Amino acid sequence: MSATTSYSSTLAESELRSLLLRYRQENWQGIQTAENQEKVVEDILQSGCEQVLDSMAPYFVPLRDAKILDIGSGVGSFVAGCRNRGFTAYGVEPDRIGAGAGLTSIQIAAHRLQESVFVSGVGECLPFADKTFDLISLNQVIEHVANQQAVIREAARALKPGGAMYVACPNYLRFYEPHYKIVWLPMMPRSLGSLYLRVRGRNPVMLHQLTYTTNRGLKRLLQSLGKGYLVLDLHREDFLRKLNAESFASMPAKFIAKLIRVPVLGALLKALVLLYIRIREGGCAMVVLRKPGEILN
Fold first, then answer.
1. Number of helices (H), then strands (E), in the chain
2. Does 79 reside within a domain?
3. Residue 30 located in a structural domain
4. Is 277 domain-assigned?
5. Helix axes 265-280, 215-223, angle to 10 degrees
6. Nearest-CA neighbor of 89 among 113, 117, 108?
7. How far apart are alpha carbons 200 and 223 in whole angstroms?
8. Is 32 a member of any domain?
9. Where are the alpha helices (H) located in 47-112, listed in sequence order?
10. Model confidence over 157-200: pLDDT tens digits?
11. What residues make up the domain containing 111?
12. CATH code assigned at 118
């Protein structure tokens, strides 16, 4: 979709960078190193809505008049990006990152737009009517919420029939913790994790705000919505699409694709590759399509 309007920003990029650095320093002190905080800020300045919309494009493309909600909207990058492309977008953010500080992410988000489109609230109790939105995003949010089941059902309630939900989160079967950005044992017990963090000179406050998430766990959570919703694992679907189109770029992937077409051996190899994607993929990313005419169970 081409941009039809531009959102009205009240901040110059230098001002936004300064606010983001202050926010990261106040809220992420002891969680991320100063170097990581600066890198995250630069990534935020370059981010918008493209990554989410592009990854969903094979399965769902919002129409020009679509209404979009970002649950856990943070500093507002996704909402601002959507509005820059002409969508009507809103954000909900409780801002409970780290130990908390004077400057909050929703305050920064509010300064990025002249329109009042950000609401302070939690995903378990959305301040919106049923069937309001065409697209709802929960990007790197579900691992932070108090009640994952309640948040998903609230999002489904606010989603229009024929609409889509995007949900992405870390995969804690990896040897990496993405918030602290350090090596991590898969599903490490919190007591051991807290000790490990203190040894590394880190504050374990973030660890106690997290729920470990995995590809399988996220899929089961989303499938609990019932038959009125179709759940698509984007990493799995992307692999299958490239396999069918024979469009892999790397030589190892092309070689594996050829082996998969070998009778008997290929079926086993395909199952192993899909299992590897599910377990070892860096993050979980799924799309939920609400079928037209269906109601929430």
1. 11, 7
2. yes
3. yes
4. no
5. 90
6. 117
7. 38
8. yes
9. 50-56, 77-84, 105-112
10. 999 999 999 999 999 999 999 999 999 999 999 999 999 999 99
11. 13-234+282-290
12. 3.40.50.150
